[in-house]
Amino acid sequence: MSVPSKTEILEWLKANPRASGKRELARAFNVKGAARIELKRLLREMQDEGLIAKRNKRIRPPGELPPVTMLRALPPDGDGDVFAEPEAWEEDQEPPRILVLPKKGDPALGPGDRFLARLRPVEGEFALNYEARLIKKIQASPNRILGIYREGGRILPVSKRSDKEWLVPEGASDGAKDGELVEAEQLSGPRMGLPRARVVERLGDPSAPRQVSLIALHEHDIPDAFSDKVIAEAEAAQPAPLARREDLRDLPLLTIDPADARDHDDAVAAFPDDDPKNQGGHIVWVAIADVAHYVRPGTALDREARARGNSTYFPDRVSPMLPEALSANLCSLHEGQDRACLAIRMVLNAEGEKIGQRVTRGLMRSAASLTYEQAQAMADGALDLTTELNTAIDHLYAAYRAAAGARDRRQPLELDLPERRVELDAEGQVAAIRLRDRLDAHRLIEEFMILANVAAAEALEALRRPCLYRVHEEPNPDKLDALRETVEGLGLTLAKGQAVRTSHLNQILSGARGTDAEELVNMQVLRAQTQAYYAPENFGHFGLNLAKYGHFTSPIRRYADLVVHRALMGELAPEEMEDLAKIADHISKTERRSMEAERDTVDRYVAHYLSDREGAEFPGRISGVAKFGLFVKLDETGADGLIPISTLGREYFHFDPEALILIGERSGTRYTVGQRAMVRLAEVTPVTGGLRFELLSAEGTGTVPRSKGRRGATPRRKLAKSKIAKAKAARKARRR
Fold first, then answer.
1. With contact defined as beta carbons under 8 Å apart, do 473 and 461 qualify?
2. Whose CA is closest to 720, among 676, 661, 657?
3. What's the pLDDT at 713?
4. Of 12, 98, 80, 87, the residue nearest 52 (C-alpha)
5. What residues does 633 pair with on adjacent strands?
6. Which of 78, 189, 481, 731 is the most exposed place for a label (fewest CB within 10 A)?
7. How far does Cα 306 stand from its chain's mean position?
8. 438 CB contacts (<8 Å, ≥6 apart)?
9. How much is the pLDDT for 401?
10. Residue 329 in 3-state DSSP?
């Protein structure tokens, strides 16, 4: 029998995807003897022409996959759907698009997870080739690394938390060049030696402007692009009509934001209360963009916003929770533009206590968009705009002074920690590192937002509707013990044997104010606090000293606020109510992720800023003590760097983790948090944000001691150990 034609072979392969080997093909067409040689030649010719592809001794049309295939999961798209790609794909064309259809009971698939799946071809579906049903999950997603590729097949991590190099086998570099920033994933390999990885994405020059925030986006898996469907939904939104909304356009509502604000989602107004029963009282309005009107439950916009959890802000860019069509337009309260809002009208008495509130859905028009500096200058009489705006500012500050009095009596935690601000030039290079100013204008907006957040939580409880509370629990007793020991060494007292209140901590902070220990005490009080989180149950807010607290004021950038808005309007979907605990846990995690990314980015920018000042000397203060060395914060930039313990002198240092002290075994030199220090910048690693210092001198120790050998060390070592043991015993006795 003669060999089949090319058309017959292609039709048979399509009809028999499971049996696609050369042997099955010969048996199907009864090809025997010398005809087998001709069949082999014909198959090679078809392969060269691109009519068929050969993988693992299987023959099939190019682009087609066998019914059972090993796949790798991709990140969910904007609709929450999970797609996958073949684990092994060596053809020139793009791999087929595969949609994973999960069944009840299937394990969850994360990006990079490998799994065996049964495929079903999809006919006539645009941009979709297969549907996949999971058979077995083979392996969780491999570890990923962001690093600098080095010639010879090495990757140096950019994270300060990882100092181990990765080895890239031949053929797994994706063409990466020496010095290029790459993302790689771990490969299986021998347990001993360096971990192996393959490059999955090349990200370019790590020293290029604006690359710093890109590193943070990749390192922390923060999404930076929206799907076409999400963007289409946002761009299709139309301005909300007045309809049943309350018309608030005559109110003197103002937005007061930083000069570089990317969105304006809150506006405030205040005026004296004309109710004779509330002499000296104030009416305060807080109006927030009505994001819930545009982002409806179950839409692609909503799924994407929930997945992101919040916006993430960097000095040069923002990874927003919502597309620009909403965050920078319809949900941004631009001056002179009608905007849909959710507003709370609050009544304050003459002492600043909130005695009434009302929530309404309205239509507002911002009378002006001011910066904090402009608002403060108007309040101080240094800037005169219009009579109406001057009056509006006067009324706002009058209401704030009353509310601030109530706040002082409530005694929330009064931490004062300066915040670094990175200023970039037009080329994206660091122009300056400054500390953010704290004006009364900042405190005014902060206080009115807190009042509105409390009012929202109280309103939901009155309506008996679910709420996402912002929870900040009381400090851990062990951390309070460590704080107590630190401040006692400074001559301050934290009472023991009673429930710690914010007023007790404020007494410590007040006692340190204006002294060299002020920043140290603020840092130690902060470290004693628990981390705030979201929860559907109310456990109070310790730091603000409030019994009920939600987040209502920033639905553009926080999903928690969007949930609260829906609850206030009675628009929570049933599945949202069921999943409230899951939503709270997820957005608490995304918030921490963003905080870490933002902090890492500032560290890297500061390192870039200092990269040409190696060898320079700086004054600072010891901000942390660990068994491996000292951390020092510079006065000039607030930058933190490490002094390795090996550079402190040729002697052994005992580390007391409770008192946070390093004590030299022979010299008795003591290093503790808060000491003034003069350091030399020894090494800068901009790509990780790492700074290494050399200690020149420290307050109370003189110059850094250098060991002269081990002779005569035994008695001093015993004496030092004895002192340490006695000190620890004394501390335990005090605790008992």
1. no
2. 661
3. 37
4. 12
5. 621, 640
6. 189
7. 14
8. none
9. 97
10. helix
Is residue 362 classed as helix, strand or coil in its secondary structure?
strand
pLDDT at site 719: 41
Q: Is the separation of the CB atoms in 671 and 620 below 8 Å? A: no
- pLDDT at residue 297 above 90? yes
Q: Which two tokens stand for residue 93?
A: 């064309």
- Kind plus residue range of the DSSP H or E element containing 525: helix 518-527
**How far is C-alpha 559 from the chain's CA centre?**
14
pLDDT digits (tens, 9 = 90+) for 175-212: 899 989 888 888 876 667 788 888 988 888 887 777 88
Spatial distance between the Cα atoms of 605 and 210, rounded to a whole number of angstroms? 10
Chain length of the chain = 736
User: Torsion angle of alpha carbons 717, 723, 726, 727, nearest 10°?
Assistant: -130
Tell me which H or E stretch contains 714: helix 713-735
- Alpha-carbon span 211 to 429, nearest angstrom: 10
- Burial-class residue 517 by CB neighbours within 10 Å (0-12, 13-18, 19+): buried
Among the listed residues 278, 276, 267, 405, the one whose alpha carbon sits nearest the alpha carbon of residue 345: 267
Find the angle CA(452)-CA(458)-CA(464) to the nearest 5 degrees.
140
Alpha-carbon distance of 185 to 28, in angstroms, equals 43
Tokens of 471: 């929870």
pLDDT per residue as tens digits for the range 482-536: 888 888 877 888 878 778 999 999 999 999 888 877 887 888 899 899 999 999 9
Residue 50 three-state SS: coil
Q: What are residue 348's phi and psi, to 5 degrees? A: -110, 140
Distance of CA 694 to the CA centre of its chain: 32
CB 322 within 8 A of CB 244: no
Burial per residue of 88-100, b for 16 or more beta-carbon CB atoms within 10 angstroms, e otherwise: eeeeeeebbbbbb
Please return the burial class of 164, using the count of CB atoms within 10 Å of its CB with bins 0-12, 13-18 and 19+.
exposed
Are the beta carbons of 141 and 112 closer than 8 angstroms? yes
Whole-angstrom distance, CA of residue 479 vs CA of residue 463: 38
371: number of Cβ within 10 Å: 16
Q: Which amino acid is at 205?
A: D
Strands 154-157 and 144-150: antiparallel
In angstroms, the CA 662 to CA 668 distance is 9
Tokens of 141: 């997603």
Q: Is the dihedral of CA 447, 449, 454, 458 positive or negative?
A: positive
pLDDT tens for residues 624-674?
889 999 999 998 888 899 999 999 988 899 998 877 789 998 888 989 887
Cβ atoms of residues 529 and 483 within 8 Å: no
Rg (CA), the chain: 32
List, in order, residues 6 or more apart from 112 with CB less than 8 Å away. 72, 73, 140, 141, 142, 144, 185
Residue with tokens 């796949």: 71
Q: Which pTM was predicted?
A: 0.77
Beta strands (DSSP E) in 315-353 are: 318-319, 338-348
Per-residue confidence (pLDDT) for residue 78, from 0 to 100: 57
User: What letter does residue 12 receive in the DSSP assignment?
Assistant: H
Measure CA of the first residue to CA of the last residue in the chain; give whole Å. Answer: 98
Q: Which residues neighbour 208 within 8 Å (Cβ) at sequence distance 6 or greater?
A: none
Cβ-count burial 573-584 (b if 16+ within 10 Å, e if not): eeebeeebeebb
139 close to 150: Cβ distance less than 8 angstroms = no
Name residues whose C-beta falls within 8 Å of residue 270's C-beta, 6 or more positions apart in sequence. 282, 283, 284, 285, 392, 395, 396, 398, 399, 400
3-state percent helix, strand, coil for the chain, nearest multiple of 5: 30, 25, 40
